[in-house]
Structures are given as C-alpha cells and as structure tokens.
Amino acid sequence: MGRGKFLAGVSLVAAVFGAGPADAGFRTPESLIRNVYAFYGQGSPAFSNGLPRDEETARQFFDPSLRGAWTALHDAPYDFLVQSPTWRIGPISIATPRRQFDKTDVTVAFDNEGRAVTLDFIVVNGPDGWVIADVESPHDSLRMFLTQFRR
Prior knowledge:
Helix content: 25-40%
Number of helices: 5
C-alpha cells in the first residue's frame, strides 16, 4: 500500500509541475524537420496539404517571433517550405553542419517534382524543445517571405 501512495504522489507532482508532453517544440532538430515534411506527403488530406497555418501548429513548430507571421500569411504565390505552389517531394536529406548549444543549423535537401531544393533551417532549443527560428533559401528567408505576404 505504501508503494501505491508513493506512485500516486509522483504522478500528482508530475502533473502539477508539467512533466507531461510539451506544447511546443521537438526533442531533436532532426525530428522537427521530419515532422515539418510529414505534412507534405501523398497520404491522408490532413497530412498532404502542407504545414497548417493555425495557432496550434505555429506554437508547436515556430519560435514565438515567427508564430504570428506564420498564421497571418495571405495570398503567397508558393509554399516557402517546398519552394513551389505544388509538390511531390522525394526523400529528404537532413544534415547538421553547425550545432552551437541552443542553436543549430540544419540543411535540408530534397527533390520537388524534378527540381532540387536545398533549405537551411535555423532552429533553437527553447524551454519546450526545438522550434524553427528561420529558414533560408538561396534567394530569401522565411521571415522576409512572411513579412512580404502578411495580411
């Protein structure tokens, strides 16, 4: 009986102090990238329309400074994360050329409908896990793109 009370107490403390799943972020930079591109598959409608622009998704995937811009995007000519208005992406290559404490650069390469795409994700590790601070293409950055097409 003493052990049962102890386990119940530990569960209560864990619930009170937030030891449950995080509301935002991912455990590794690589898992963050894999989860972003899971929304660009050819499967169910929920996971084939690109990364959603709702508040919950923004909180899970983006740094606080990008969340509002992600949800306010309007009339963009293409999806920045695949560099095209349409997609059929091939296998994704993920490389981590630079890791500095709570900030990491992740290079992502894939084929989108026959065209090679390379993006550099700048991800940061916050209190809830890894989130996107910016994404750079050879010609632009996600921050500049979102500012240009903000509502």
